[in-house]
Every structure is written in C-alpha cells, then in structure tokens.
Write a structure and sequence with these properties.
Length: 416
C-alpha cells in the first residue's frame, strides 16, 4: 500500500470514520460490516488457462486440486476474507467425492464452497445438456447434477451453482420454446433432490459458446426458471456476463427487491465475459452495484443473504497476485458503498435535488478506502497491504520450483 505506514494508515482511517460519526452513523458498526465481508474464490482461477486458441502456461500454476487449495489458502492468509473455495466437479473431483480433499482444505483453514456441475465438457453435450433434444442426454445431465448434490452434502456445501452452455448456432437448428420447456423440466428434477438449506443458483449468459441463441440468456429467463422450481432457487448474477452498456445495478436492484438475488460472480469485461480483474475496466459501475446491495439492507434483519464469489481465470497475470488484487478491489469498493451518506441521499432524492443526490454517491466513490481496508486487516492481525505481503513471502517462487519438480515442465496446448 504505497505511501502508507501502519500509523499513517490508521490515522487516515480514523479521519474517515470521524466523518461517518459526524453524519450520525456508527463507525464501529461500519468497520464490523467491512470485516464481515466474505468472498469465495474459484479453484479454477489458479490453474493454467488461456483463450479458445491456446493455453498460456505459468510455472506456479496449480495442477492438482490440492495445489489449488494451497493457493486459495494463500489468498485467504493475506486478505482474511476468503475462507471458502468454489469447486468444479469434473475438474476437482473427476472420480467422485474424495474426503481427502475436504480434509486438506480443513488443514489449510479453508472449506469447500459452492459446487459447480460441469454440463459443457463431455462430447454428449454437443447439442446441449438440459436443453438437449435427446432425452437420454438430458438424463445424463440431470444425473450429473444429482451426483453433484450428493457431493455437496458430503462437502458440507449449501450451494449448487448451475451454468448451462446450452444454445444453438443456427436459426431453425432446434425449437427455442421446446428447449425452454426441457430446461424447466430438468431443473424441477434437480431441485426435487435438494436437501433443506441448500440453494440452487441459476446463472445466465447472453452468448458464448452458442452463436445464435443461448437457452438462459438473461436475468429474466433465470428468474423465471428459479421462481418456477421453488424458493430454494435463486438467480446468480455474473458481472462480466452482460452485453456492453447493460445497467447491471438495475438488475441487482430488481432481484434484491424480489428476494431472488442468490449469488454474485465478480469479474469484469470490456466487451463481454472477458474474465478481467474485477473493476479493472469500470470501478464506478462496480461501486454502483455495491451501493444497491448496501441500500437493500433490512434494518430489522440485516444484509441480504448473497453468496459473493469470484469467477475469473487470468491468462497473463500471476494467478494468486491477480486474485488478491481482485479481493482487495472488492473490499475497497464495498467500503465505498458503506460510506454513502444514505440519509443525505434520501433527503436529496425526496426534494428532487439531482445534483446533491449524485454528489452523495460520488463523494463516497472518490473517498480513498485503502486505509479502511488496511485498518480492518490490521484488526484481523494481518498486514494491511495483502499484495505486498504475498510478494514478500516468496510463495509463488517456491510453488513454481516445487511444482516443476513434482510434475515436470508443462507444454502449451494449441487451438487445433
């Protein structure tokens, strides 16, 4: 955290909290809320990835589930707010449930988070999974989801996260309405197997890999499917899975008001689904999303129950450093949203003072919240600058040496 030592940082943080107190708000409650934020990190974010044209290799990239857990633990060790790891079933449990994985996670101070079925990798899904015109293929996809639920039970996970790559490439390839009905019927079968307390998250994506139409292409479609199957199903919003110009905070606000926002995936995009570091392109848009979330806090019941998860795979940045950078940006933007003077904002909105209302948001957004996040980390017994602490630890260099000795040197994969 360039330009700050611990004392200067805490002084800066106190000045911000004094301003909060001057607004008639509770600085201690704000800091407790900031420290209570929990972000789930994805196992797949630590493995070698690339574009559909090729894979770019990093010497320290994780090649086993255990190595992914170790890298995730390093992120949590530096940030203090990432105690769970999202699992992709076929990538992390290719042979089914392995209790050693959960045991190793526990040793590292981590736990298994959301369970993500893989409904796009196998050859049988060439024409879709839950929307496939072949009932035998749909049955395979449903069974995989049922197996994933059983795996979630074993892991102690309360989240089943569904994303479908289903869609068509050409007009007339299949009936759009029939595909909708097939997905709905399959989701009902999956939902019926959910135990009490488990939530099924339905994600949407406007395009890719399908070129003509995607079966769950926007929040309204995901909302309809989730609403129809039952109250344990919610919508999962991925920040990067939107067309350019989409008002994501409006989607978030509507789903919050409907009680249907179950999860949020953090990444960013310049064009669409680019898997970029969260807020690297438009931090003000990300801040506005957090503003809507914080605005929806219930005075009697507290914050909405939302699963916050990162979903990004970095092709060029070092894996762990990029993940720490994203977690830090989330924390800082969340702090900015907490700083909005909501009484002042509400009064400006009531009297129709548009300039004052917008200024209330901008004042919070342009506040440097690094001191607040740093102070929160100091209270947790951590270094205030998580990225600097990670880089000083030499973790990446050690991991690169150990993994090269263990697995050999990776060779690149090409598109064709």
């Amino acid at each position: 955290m360039a330009g700050y030592n611990d004392r200067t940082l805490e002084q800066q943080a106190q000045r911000i909290l004094n301003d909060v107190a001057d607004q008639g708000r509770n600085p201690k409650a704000l800091m407790e809320r900031l420290a209570s934020l929990r972000i789930e990190i994805p196992s797949w974010g630590f493995a070698d990835t690339g574009t559909r044209f090729g894979k770019f290799l990093q010497p320290a990239a994780a090649r086993t589930t255990e190595e992914k857990l170790e890298d995730a633990a390093e992120v949590h060790r530096r940030t203090g707010i990432c105690p769970s790891v999202a699992i992709h079933v076929l990538w992390d449990f290719p042979a089914g449930w392995d209790p050693q994985v959960a045991h190793r996670a526990h040793e590292l101070g981590m736990k298994i988070g959301s369970i993500n079925p893989n409904l796009f990798q196998d050859q049988c899904y060439k024409y879709g999974s839950l929307a496939n015109p072949d009932p035998k293929i749909r049955a395979v996809a449903v069974q995989h989801c049922l197996n994933s639920i059983e795996l979630a039970k074993e892991a102690g996970s309360g989240l089943l996260s569904l994303w479908l790559a289903d869609g068509t490439n050409y007009p007339g390839q299949d009936s759009i309405r029939d595909r909708k009905r097939r997905v709905g019927e399959c989701l009902k079968q999956i939902y019926a197997a959910l135990p009490d307390g488990m939530t099924m998250l339905v994600e949407y994506k406007p395009f890719e890999p399908a070129f003509y139409h995607t079966d769950i292409a926007d929040w309204g479609m995901a909302y309809i499917f989730a609403r129809e199957v039952g109250p344990q199903a919610k919508v999962l919003v991925d920040f990067g899975h939107h067309l350019p110009g989409q008002n994501i905070e409006q989607i978030v606000a509507w789903l919050l008001d409907e009680g249907m926002l179950g999860g949020f995936h953090f990444n960013d995009h310049k064009y669409a689904d680019d898997d970029l570091t969260f807020s690297s392109i438009d931090p003000y848009a990300a801040f506005r999303v957090f503003h809507e979330i914080v605005s929806a806090d219930d005075p009697d019941h507290g914050p909405a129950d939302i699963a916050y998860m990162i979903d990004q795979s970095h092709n060029l940045k070092p894996k762990i450093a990029a993940m720490i950078q994203t977690v830090t940006m989330i924390h800082e933007l969340f702090a900015k949203a907490l700083l909005v003077d909501r009484q002042n904002l509400a009064e400006a909105q009531t009297r129709g003072d548009i300039v004052a209302a917008e200024t209330a948001l901008r004042d919070a957004f342009f506040t440097d919240t690094r001191p607040l996040v740093g102070a929160a980390r100091i209270q947790m017994g951590l270094a205030p600058d998580a990225l600097a602490a990670h880089e000083a630890s030499g973790y990446t260099q050690r991991a690169a040496q150990e993994r090269a000795a263990r697995h050999g040197i990776s060779k690149g994969g090409s598109y064709a």
